[in-house]
Amino acid sequence: MTPSTTVRSPLRLYGRDDELACLGSLLELLRQGGGGALVVAAPPGLGRTALLRAAADAHRDRGPVLYATAASTGRAVPGGGPVVPLGPSPAFGPPPAAPYPVTTPEALVRRLREPGAGGPLLVCADDAHTWDPASRSALALTAGRLGPGSRTAVLLSAADGTAFPGLPTLHLAPLDEAAASALLDRLTGGTPLGGSRGADLGSVSGADPGEACGTVRSAGLGAAPGPAPEAAFGTPSGADPGAASAAAPGADGIGIDPVVRAELLREAAGNPRLLTGLTGRLTPGQLAGRTALPFPLPGGEAVLAAHAERLAGLPDRTRALLLLAAAAQEHEPDGAGADALLLLRAGARAGLPRDFLDRALLGATATEGLLQRAGSRVHFAHPLVARAVLHHAPWPHRRAAHALLATLLAETGDRASPCTPSTPSPDAPAAVPRPGPAVPLAALVQRACAAPGPDAALAARIEAAAGGPLPHAERSAALARAALLSAGPTLRAARLAAAAEQAGLAGDPSRARALLARAGPRTAGATGPGGESAQGLAPYVHGMLALRSGPAADAREALLAAAALLGPHDPRRALDALLGAAEAAWAAGDALGYLDAMNRLGRTPPEAGLEQYRAGMCAVLEGRTAEGHALLRHCLDPAGDPGAPAALLRAGAAALVLGDVATACRAGARALAAVRTRGPDALLPQALEHLAYAELRAGRHSGARAHALEGLHAARRTGQPNSSAHLHAVLALAASVEGPAEACAAHADAALAGAGPHGLAQAATLATWARGRADLASGRPGEAAARLAPLVGTGPGRGHFAARMLAVPCWVEAAVLGGRQHEESRELHAAVDEFASWAARTADPGAPAQLARCRALLAPADEADARYAEALAHHGRAGGDFERARTHLLYGQWLRRRRRTREARGPLRDALVAFQRSSARAWADRAAGELRAAGEPVGAPRKAADGPTAALTPQQLRIARCVAEGATNREVALRLSLSPRTVDHHLRNVFAALGIRSRTELARLLAG
Description:
Strands 3-2-4-5-1-6 form a six-stranded mixed sheet, with helices on both faces. The protein has a three-stranded antiparallel sheet with strand order 7-9-8. Helix 17 (395-412) runs antiparallel to helix 18, helix 23 (531-549) runs antiparallel to helix 24 (552-566) and helix 44 packs across helix 47. It is mostly helical. It is built from 47 helices and eleven strands.
């Protein structure tokens, strides 16, 4: 599409480039004398009106515009609203008084049937779905007949596409995250547009964004009318309700806290009008994260009212079922929908006909598509509809629905917990439950939804029931509801922090951060019931979230601070905080920080297994290797609960430190099974990462790749970018073996992009090692040596303390093959000596073989044979095709360079077969090239039999390809283990055979 066919609007429309281009196509067709019709369908707030106004504004200089706006009654009415012509005007604003007498749909249809005159005519009918059926049918019939020569185009906006069947329909989706974020930046002044500021999507140029999007100063989003629960749960302490309505976002460049940003984007769900309304009702302090966010968030009343207009015309029984469905979602985690069986029972108990319930819950026709069934769950077609149902239902009706659902859930008795019938004082902390009638947690939450105000007793019962063995998402939802029932701000903050912890464990960090934002900043001197818990728990949750998604150093400091606050009254969480701080230090490559956290852990001795792990890891890092290994061996088969994921992950880590890769794989597989069975969901990426890394160390590259890919998907789903960086590094290592090189580079770049800002030294080390190994596979030892030298050195770029030794064999190989053996002789021998010390301490069966290979590469000619033989003997005992094949390849190259060509064929042939068995395609190609150079044909040459290079020998072809890639003679000699004189000789023969005179001609010939 050319730029001239795209609508150019003075309105600032975010995320609607494709839709504007579609409208531009219709307008271009109209300009060329054609015609047509298009329905823009979207729920309220997504910008269908803004698109129609943008099209009208784009066409106003080319011809007349008729703009029809429907009456906002929510019901199908004859006439629907005024229809006025819009001609060329200096500014686009409210339609002027109509000189052309078109005031009804019937008149509009008559006008459409007249031949176009005076220029191409654009007709825009906004909210046309509210017209009466006869008018809609006449309009659809007439618009459908528009075509070539009609010089008329019709744009209709409707809530959905069913109002005008047969007409082309453009469905608007919610804004994607990037577009919604850009709009939020505009609303808060975060992204200056430069020049004139156009109105945002859904607003009119020159209008206030809040007014244009229908912001009103009334009850909060999702609040119900009646005996004001919103008044009871009100604005949290510290927020000024009056100031909230006076905020003017964007006027002063208000900074917005990342957590508040995420909560606004989540709550708006891509609805620009709703996002504008929500942002406009927050104070600068709330936007900056200095003041707790109100709950429910105010500002969405206009969007909810627009959704509710559709509900007003539904039959009473349909609205009753919708209210039950919306209420039944309140005790479920976000996005889970409602239980279809519970709805069926509730509808029957409420007196709704069974045939109606069957049609509504099975076919969705009885609810006009507002309810959709997926298996045993029932969902609203759009989440804002559920909010609108609750928001506009009379409070007595809503309370009755919650009470009915609570009764039914109590009758089922599943997931029951003992409740506390006593009534504590309003500010009393949760009492220890005493034996009483068992009430399911879901029933308690439904009772909470029906509560007219704070209820300390019910909140305590919910908190006690949420401590049972329930899914973390359900526990989070229940604790958040208990916080709403809490009268005291300190206790409310403690319960919100507990809800955030459970949301984090459920793999929903966005919700966890939103709950923390609702808790607000707490002072160190907070007193009252729950004060001690609130002081430590919120920093603990912040730190655990940062461990998976923020800078590792920040996570470590936050968790150390949380451990100090939690230690006196919550030793279990304090222990977890210290373990998290140690994990953050390990990821950052901070050995001293790791020791500090683990030594703090020893001040309050944990259980025996954890203490042995702590003492063993500290001993290893402090140089007491034998002592540390002896302690860590006791951790390989954790005592206590054999299915505890954390203990199994520690067992796998201990095995890797010992070098016992087989045990590490078994522990990783057991940990993964435990997480899949018992959770938490947030631990799944780590379990998959640990197993994949153990499999890499064991040479099981395909299994490592499969587990790392699954882990990457899990990390993205659960919002853990740090885990994504580590898993990208694992995938890069797998691709450095299996290929292709492009995949290795992509994963390594992704790992480094995440590791750099967050200080993840381990991920950065592994990713750089992978790139270097891929360079070796591609025959680029010079580049490999340049990448790997800083990792194994002692300078500022030194690699992670636990991973750098693994890269030493690759660096030694790259330096020797790249001709840097003499230049860096001292560094090479120092690195090999350090590797020898590490190999003597580890139980890794492959370490002795790699050490012997390094010594063979550095040995003089009369010793190298014996060193290679030693390395191959170690490989025979250790197993592992890939590393043994690398040793065979290097040995064969060395023999061929010594002109022992016949002897070289055996090791090179073994290398080729082993690389093929390992699916190491690039390495196999390298071995095949060496074998061909040794005089043994391998497979079909990669050229056409009658092509221009058919006359070249395998060695000449290898040299020609390297030269065509831009390599110098010396670089080709290093890459192919030849002398520069031999390369020059072969290259002269190549030029003569191909009849060319320059390297440029050679590159063109091979490229063609």
